[in-house]
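Dear colleague,

Following up on yesterday's call, I've attached the two folding results inline so they're easy to grep. Please treat them as preliminary; we haven't cross-checked anything against experimental data yet. The first protein's sequence and structure tokens come first.
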Amino acid sequence: MITTNLILTVSIIILSLITFKGSDYFIKKIGTRKKIIPKRIYYVSKVMHFILVIFALMILAIVWNVQLGGIMVFASSIFAVIGVALFAQWSILSNLTSSIIIFFTFPARVGDKIKVIDGDNSLSGEIIEISLFQIEILDNDGNTILYPNNLFIQKPVMKIKKTKTDTLKQKRFYNNKKTI
């Protein structure tokens, strides 16, 4: 019985490592095809690794017939604390989830000019960074706006065509940003 469990454990670990490499490959392939900056690819990859580790640990617990009674009490206590914390800060989880959705589906990327349509609170500018929790937008006055990812996928977003002047401004901005 123990030999079988050891073989299954080693198999699960090897399969998990292969899955890590496979998910990294596909995330990088999607990121490269969409011209996404490496930092965002790294973030999404780490979130995927976390999910895969949790899944592998659950399978290992089943293989080793871990008594779930004690673990369930511990897990429910932890989840209660996490639930209270997330209820107080639900937008953190929402922004993180939105970041992954934006990674895989959002048609705009860093450098694109956009307009977020939100009635009197509409804003427009150029996307200069997309992180795990917010999108940085440089408005026409040179101000940087940090817009939460969860609001970004809930509001209509218009992609604005660039002019030659916009392209020159963008090159100057990024050249200045590199020297700072």
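Below is the second protein, in the same order (sequence, then structure):
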Amino acid sequence: MVSSTESVDDHPAGGLTLPRLANVPAHPACLVMTSMSSQYRIITVCTGNICRSPMAELMLAEAMAAAQLTGAAVDSAGITAYEVGRPIDPRAARKLAAHQISSAGHVAREWRNDWFQSRELILAMDVDHYGWLRQAAPDAASLAKIRMLRSFDPAVAGKDPLDQGIEDPWYGGHTDFDNTWELIRASLPGLLDHVRAALAQPATAETGTPIATTGQRVRSNS
């Protein structure tokens, strides 16, 4: 399981303990052993790629390492160019570091449409990211890959995407980043189960990677 050292988060203007593994580097990006193209690829998506999505990326990579799950990779991006090239928000970095997860290599980046083809699971952090990704998706196969990250949280699984969002902590303080951590952490056991199931699936003829995704539909407020 791999975490990219590139990434993008957020703005204009429970339950799972993540144990450290013996001899495992603090940043799971150091675990890269095989080409990402041969793996089950996950990407987490928020606004600017400096808060929510890199936190989710690094927390999921750490959880996969702790579970000794191999054959999967995770990275992150943002739907805007607001923060491109910047490091992770220091408040997010501080929260991760408190749990011995390094974010030192993170550099914010903007979503690229070719990632609809090269990723098997696309995780939106909030409903606006979910709606944006669905509008940008070029085909039904891409749509089926898009899910809210918290659709894997038993507390809100099965609910409308409008009820599964993680609000942007950038506008708040340390308590908001604590809340972001807890909401992401609650989704990790379900995500790990999903990855295990996906890796157990036979590889597709085109990509050689397993596909095990279920798209969501978003409710309209109009």
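For the second protein, one point worth flagging: The domain at 2-200 is CATH 3.40.50.2300 (Rossmann fold).

Best wishes,
A.L.
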